[in-house]
Write a structure and sequence with these properties.
203 residues, mainly beta, seven-stranded parallel β-sheet, globular
Length: 203
Amino acid sequence: AVIAMLATGARGGPLDPPGPPASTDSVKLPGTPISSLPYTISSPGSYYVTRPLSGVNSQNGISINSGDVTLDLGGFTLEGVPGALYGVRVSGAVASRQNIVIRDGALRQWGLCGIDAGAARESVFEDLRLMNNVSCGIVAGPASALRHIQAFENNDDGIRVLQGTSPVGGGEVSGSTASNNGGDGLQLDASLMIVDGNTLNGN
């Protein structure tokens, strides 16, 4: 038995070293990768950013022209350049699109708002940082949930939720921080909202 154990235990691991670490350009999230700006989303589905990206003069960073879209920023930053427009913009009239999810990343120094999603109702925005944008940090449509948003030093409102006409109201802003913005830290045009655990100062 001892001889058998020694024989089977004598094998070593592979002598070749492991390959190089995976590139940050391939985060392998579900959906369609976004590796350059500007980018337009025209159909429902999941999309993800593969690396830090910079904007282009006179262009939005990412334009969303559809409902039922999930956009994962992958923890990366979308950075504006002089003359760039919105970091992310959902097109259409207020509350005209439904079920947009934008999560996990930063948008800074855009020529207008970091995120303009006033057209998105019943949508989710979470784990986002919006900093030093020439206009607002983030605008969301009615009945949307905004969780763990950080809006710092934007020239206009840090966080704003629009009313729209249908649905009447609802939604949530929770666990968020708005500091040192040139307008309101948190402006709620919508009614019947849950507002809990937020920190607002210096606006």
